[in-house]
Amino acid sequence: MAETKVRFGILGCANIARKVSRAMKLAPNCAITAIGSRSIEKASQFAAENEFPASAKVYGSYDAVLDDPDVEAVYIPLPTSLHLRWAVLAAEKKKHVLLEKPVALNVKELDTILEACESNGVQYMDATMWMHHPRTAKMREFLSDPQRFGQLKSVHSIFSYVGGPEFLKDDIRIKPDLDALGALGDTGWYCTRAILWANEYELPKTVTALPEPEYNEAGVILSCGALLRWTDGKTATFYCSFLTNLTMDITALGTNGYLCVHDFVIPFQENGAPFYEASNSRFANLAIGIEPVPSEHAIDTDLPQEALMVQVFANLVAGINEKGASPEKKWPTISRKTQLVIDAVMASIEKDFEPVEVVP
Prior knowledge:
The chain is an alpha/beta fold.
């Protein structure tokens, strides 16, 4: 029997929506039902360029998508400043919400979104794609192995890319009225999530922003970093930037081993992704190498991680709509923890790089 397809509406024609709409076409349990933009011409052009099915409806407003009774779930790739309004309205219209990151400008806004989703019985998930790659589960297995990895002691994460002159002039991610968090909200979201993931979502005790973040003329962050500390002595650092070469690293250090991945945000190859692990490392004789040599593990996948993401989300939606299941609380919980750390970094910057306690 054919798998039930969850019917999606898309709010807006952001560039990332091209990737996610392709994912919806690849996922066996998803269907693109509608797209809305501020003009019907723009929505029609987007649908045509991205080869939407002929049955997909095209609207000249976001409201029209939310009012469409055939739409069960919405993907929201709008600028962060618009998330509060449209995610809350979507939940009130009983549409399940897949929300692009950064999900909100602060945790107060996110709490309003999550409360609307919970009170209306709809599923919420943020669109952090790498969480759904099968490599992520395999890396978790290694980090959870007391013999091979041991006790986690430190995590270091980097996500940076060179935005370029046009990006730094016109992209919404550097506009204070659209995405005021800048690089911290965009690339820093991934770094923060990676650190929390490695720590099994245990929040740090304090967050201290590193001095001398870089800003544009409008005061939006173009690069920054932070130090996170836990009460048991664990530490983590991250660096995020629109100004340095494309880098997507996680390094997790344990008492018995380490894990390293160089493309955690977007795998270098769509159909597979490696990570590296080493256990009980030591210098070889005369310190001319190390033993054992780190192992490379290549994890294959039939679907790209963004298609796996929408597939997981659609499965949750189908369980709610067809079987009366309750919304999965894992995703709003880890989304909120990520936002709490982002907020703490901003607070530390505003307090001249003093440590800020993270309060759940």
